[in-house]
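User: For documentation purposes, I need each entry recorded in a consistent format: the amino acid sequence on its own, followed directly by the corresponding structure tokens. There are two entries in this batch. Please keep commentary to a minimum and don't merge the entries.

Assistant: Recorded as requested. Entry 1:
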Amino acid sequence: MTEVHLAIYDLSMGMARNLSAQFLGPQHAIDIIPHTALIVYGKEYFFGRGIEWCTPQEFRATRGIHPIEVKLLGRTQKTQREFEEWCLEQGRNGTFGVESYDLLSRNCNNFSHEAAIHGLRLPNGIPQWILDVPSKFLSSPMGMMMRPILEGMQLSNNAPTNLPHGGVVRSHPVQHTPVLTENASAVNPWANIPATSTTKAESKKKAVVEGTPILDKQTGPLLSTETGVVPACIAKLVAKQDDLPHSLAETREEDKTSQLLAKLADPQAPWSQSELQIVHQHLQSFVKNGIHLSFALMLLRLAVLKHPSCETPNREQCTSTRLVAELLLNDDNKLSLSNQCMAFCVLSNAIGSNNEVPTWTRNENGRGESDFFLQVIDQALRCCDPTVMGSSSSGHVSLRQSAAAFLYNVARKLAEGKSEGDRESDGLSEATMSILIGCIENIGEEKDVTTLKRRFLCLGQLLKSPSFGKAAASLAGDLGLVDDGFCISTTNEEVNYLAKEVASLLTICKNDT
């Protein structure tokens, strides 16, 4: 008899426990977003893009995720051949075939349950609470609102299986091409990012590549633009207290505010100066008193992307973003990791948008960065430190991702010369030097692929700047920051090529000086 184990993963990497009660309500809160697989015959069997299998080591290495629990389900008398023939039949009859995957009703957990009971003939399947997670989520107001969005993420339900269509069952290592989606990851902390590891000896190899195609491809800002949470945020921030008497004027004011906040979900909607003023002032009140802060920050990150139809600078936006920056700098606030993460999303959007850069980023004479802005940059660099206690937790990883996105957008503006005012010389500004040194420091300790990518993109923006790129490379060389190359621990191809491109820029610039 062969032992059968159930591997339970948390796709949210801990964030569900921290955030679900806040967004779904206590009665609908979920501890994890579960993915399950069956481990038997030395293989890990799972359902996603069809029925797939590989060794447990291959699965975890290619996806950068590890089970939170592996539990014994029982022992089976079925042979590997018999079980894989059952899997083949499920693919052929469409039960778990190439077009049958459904994120909410026929997913990996349903497969694990059916495979355990019917494929391996165990007396019990997987725990019922895992099977109940989708219905628990969908029964919440936000779940009902988000269902169309989630169903739209399924890539037409086309899930090719690695089971052959012939009569012989063969197992294949599953190959996946890593894909990094920048705009979504800044706002979606539950994204599952593929990540793998390699030896330090391999990562220390220096390589000069021709051109910088990956750096050249990422020229735009990193923006957090997801709008599916807008209705839920409005429900929290414009709550009618029906048990209290409301005047007609108050009711009209609440309706107007709700309509304007709902307008944030439309990226094409025109805005007047007065409309944006109402939105910002309403959200500022929550930032100041800390009530429903997460919801206010989620809407504020969208509000800072809006531009009034007139040419008058949006002073309320400067006020809002200044308040958010002060939250990050005030140790007494004791912001949660999720609120710090969302605060950086607000600032990142404000810096990366087409709007005028907030006035508080510059000195009063408009020349050079303000001390306050430099403090915010330093705070972002501290939040990017992968060596702090608890850095491997999902909350810290999400924070590093958001802080790195903010630093990238700042570096992009610096490289374009749009945030410092007129330079007195061609030397490096203090902000440029801080980001350059900070993004290189401890980069070899970073394990998260998304954060690594953003740090390298940061460096690429600075080193490719036509006005100070060579000076930045010279500084890095003089300080000996990368004498041994970038000793990163990942086999993600895109990140490794980014590292090579940045190293090449440093080499080329050093040779030219």
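Entry 2:
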Amino acid sequence: MTAYLTVWEDVLRNEQLIPEVAAIAVDAALLEGVLMRTKEEPSSSNVVNYAPFTLLPSVVPSTIFEQAYAVQQDFNLLVDTISQNAEFLERTLASTIKVDDFTAHLFKIYKQVLKEGFAQSVFLGINRSDYMIDHGADGTPVLKQIEINTIAASFGGLTSRTTAVHRHILNVLGKSKEALKLLNNNPCKGIALGIAKAWELYGSARAVVMVLVADTQRNIFDQRCIENELWTRNIRVIRRQFEDVFEKASLDNDRRLYMEGQEVAVVYYRDGYMPENYNKQNWEARLLIERSKAVKCPDIATQLAGTKKVQQELSRPGVVERLLPRQAEVVTRIRATFTGLYSLDMDEEGAKVVAMAIADPERYVLKPQREGGGNNLYGEELKQLLEKIKDSPERASYILMDRITPQTSMNYLLRANSPLKISECVSELGVFGVYVRQGKDIVVNKHVGHLLRTKAIEHADGGVAAGVAVLDTPYVI
């Protein structure tokens, strides 16, 4: 294990100290509001518990951390550019929509809105680009993008409160100098400022922000953090579900969206990213919202820009260059984060990729067109599925990606009602980006904070909400 990964070795070896510090850490998390509803009562805040988190902050090399921040505005620009390029989206997703019903449904709504013409003139993007730290042949750390989330990118609220917990733990451990090194991080405020700017540009002081949510929300406090930031700016916030939109929303002649008589300026999606979020009525509700003048975060084109198929297409030589002409430095920064991504389309190239993956399944990850974590396949599972679908058009609904092998570190992962034990862990770094466009003019483009999630190495896939990863804080050295 390299030296920077043993920075907390004195603490980790002191088994008598750990239970006492863990108890202090849990109370600190509860005091700071690092909270989730329980599995037993996911729809009620009567009983809550702390969101899972690491006992100690995890080391992130400063070069990697700075690179992830430096490229975020470039990714904002790229996502926004793709969302305006109908020809690129149609060509890229042509094979996917034949075999993936969910993407096909989204694309159908996109085409309907495109045909009718956009009523919306202000566009808001809140995305999170997620990375792992791979290691080059000479052992140097290399930043590699896992994915970019363009809808319902979560944990901007809770991660804004996690740094204070880790700072307190380090102070308790007598490591006050190290505590001072933890960087301030408030993506919650940056996300809220983006929503506020879109609301302002919409131009109606009476209009509300509608947060579109699922019926059960264990992660409600993460959302409330952002809502509360908006309330402090005197922006009214309502929470509604697709079902409510279907039953009670309407458009006027100018396609303004009204919900129970209230004009809606911004629709902020924290639902709608998985097939199970939709039934026939919910799809109709989504179409109504998309047709409206309201600022959608994201609009459907931006959701499509975040699909795995688009990510894979961007890795092809010349594609980013054509999307962002005369921006060589931007393209170089973006490309530096790409790992190997491969198409499984029904052509000769796709067949070669399938054979390559079946021959050496440990080297790759198989990814469907899904968000939300817990969907990817590895190793033997990957091999079995590809052998089953290798001659079927269904294979085109997946992409293949090189498997990243990050350096591991030791830590305690604190979870409610779980035994306290040391784990060998890997971490994933996300950077939040916010942009606002009015017509063709970008009026906001910034990075607004980060999210570090850590999981034990036996869990290949899944995030905090999926119950696998835990919240963490980067210790940048």
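Summary note for entry 2:
Residues 1-5 have pLDDT under 50 and may be disordered.
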